Amino acid sequence: MDSSASTINQIYPLDEEKNGQAPAHDGVIQGFDKETEAVERNLSANNASSVPNGGTMAWLQVLSAHILFFNSWGIVNTFGSYETFYQIDFLSSSTSSAIAWIGSIQAFLLLFVGACTGPLFDKGYAIELTIGGSLFLVFGQMMLSLCKEYWQVLLAQGICIGIGCGLVCVPSTAILTQYFSTKIATAVGITAAGSSFGGIIYPIVFHRLQPSIGFPWATRVIGFMMLGTQLVSLAVYKVRSLPDKKRDLVDFAAFKEPPYAIFVFGMFVGFIGLYQPFFYIQEFAIEKHITNSNLGFYILPIMNAASAFGRVIPGILSDKVGPMNVMIPCTFVAALAGFCLIAVKSPAGLIILAIVYGFFSGTIVSSSSTVVVYLSQNNKSKMGTRLGQLFGVASFGMLIGTPVGGVVLDDYSYTSLFVFAGVFVVSAGVFIIISRKFYKGLKLMIRA
User: Fold this and answer.
1) Which residues, in sequence order, are CB contacts of 3 under 8 Å at separation 6+?
2) Contact at 8 Å (CB) between 301 and 427?
3) Computed from CA positions of residues 87, 90, 92, 97, in that sequence, does the dihedral angle turn out positive or negative?
4) Domain with 61 in it: what CATH number?
5) For the chain, what is the domain count?
6) The dihedral sign for the CA sequence 338, 309, 221, 160
7) Does 220 fall in a domain?
8) Alpha-carbon distance 113 to 159, whole Å?
9) Cα–Cα distance measured from residue 286 to residue 297, given in angstroms and rounded to the nearest whole number
10) Exposed, middle or buried: residue 180 (CB in 10 Å: 0-12, 13-18, 19+)?
11) Transmembrane segments in this chain: where (predicted)?
12) What tens-digit pLDDT sequence spans the chain (448 residues)?
């Protein structure tokens, strides 16, 4: 507060000697309240020294963002349970590819709408985006409980919930850059773990309640859980500073930077394959009689539980060695685990591979935002736009990935599906290496 007052005095000097009397401090304070507030709110987004990197308010933003991930990415990670239920019971007349379109459109809108909300966040509409997203999420979930036909499920779960997820996508990540710089990877990791916890809790709730109270009320219970948690997030969410000028929808200059452009394309490629196991592993376990139906439904929560650790632990390590240095090996290990699913025959083997894939794929998802933060250190005021562009490009990978995977599964086999997934994840790892070469070179001991 002292530094702000000093700034105001430099901008509006008090001419104490001109009138030969003491300055009217009260009048100055009243006269310049708005200017003081403007200076405080428009702290430079590029000024790292002004970022608190801790404190109660900063960690409350991590809690708020964690909940937003819980109800956006967590819902996307839950779709595998719905996929299996739809395939076996509710929409059994539909093909795997047709059902996958519901989840892929939901995930696509999460990322694509996120691309549009980035500039809106930069313009100061973070609260409005978060409130709007909360309304779409809860409304879509409640409407899903009334659905009877495929097209109704597509509208409610795919489109309405997808839009809600997209509206809270960028606010949940970009807010962290206003409160953290040196601890940004840790903050993002804890935040991103919310998606894993959502992917643990919601599938279990659905699986336990659906047989006893039916699909409509099981779905409504999840809707009420979403409503309660979103209210907590909104209660503590607070924008700390605003950019000093409006931003464009697209930051074309970012795509002229090879590290950023190559990395974003790599994420597009990776997301084509990354979510195949999340969508199909339950169905795979049950259909191939690797597990019984009860254990099969818990494979996805187990994978998401491992993913929670994969988002937090590597995030802490990323603050020390750099997110790219952590993300690259994790990408290749995730791909290897995906390939190994081809040979699994026992419940123990499937659970182990689900844990491994969940852990290392979680690192890919959470670290991608952190990498963009690192690649945009000289353009922090455009962070929302640059994150939005990442999500927007990657969204098309999500859109086409799992439906194409469904076609591969329907026409060929699970072996072909897991090969399809693994090849695209490996390709993403190669593009991240190329991006790192342009960013900091290929020397192993360089923090990148």
Assistant:
1) none
2) no
3) negative
4) 1.20.1250.20
5) 1
6) negative
7) yes
8) 11
9) 8
10) buried
11) 58-79, 99-118, 125-144, 150-177, 184-205, 217-237, 258-275, 295-314, 326-344, 350-375, 387-408, 414-434
12) 444 443 334 333 334 444 444 444 454 444 444 444 444 444 444 454 577 777 888 899 999 999 999 999 899 888 888 988 898 888 888 888 899 899 999 989 988 887 787 778 777 888 999 999 999 999 999 999 999 999 999 999 999 999 999 999 878 877 888 888 777 778 888 888 888 889 899 999 998 999 999 999 999 999 999 999 999 999 999 887 766 556 667 788 889 999 999 999 999 999 999 999 988 998 899 889 999 888 888 998 999 899 888 888 887 888 788 899 999 999 999 999 999 999 999 999 999 999 999 999 988 888 888 898 888 877 767 776 787 788 889 889 988 998 999 899 988 999 999 999 999 999 999 999 999 999 888 887 787 7
Domain range enclosing 253: 53-440
Cβ neighbours for 157, distance < 8 A, ≥ 6 positions apart: 82, 102, 106, 140, 144, 147
Q: How far apart are CA 281 and CA 286, in angstroms?
A: 9
Widest Cα–Cα separation across the chain: 93
Rounded CA-CA distance 393/272 in Å is 11
Distance (Å, whole) CA 404 – CA 76: 17
**310 is a domain residue:** yes
Q: Answer yes or no: is 238 within a domain.
A: yes
State how far the Cα of 154 lies from the Cα of 266, in Å rounded to an integer.
Answer: 29
Residue 27 lies in a domain: no
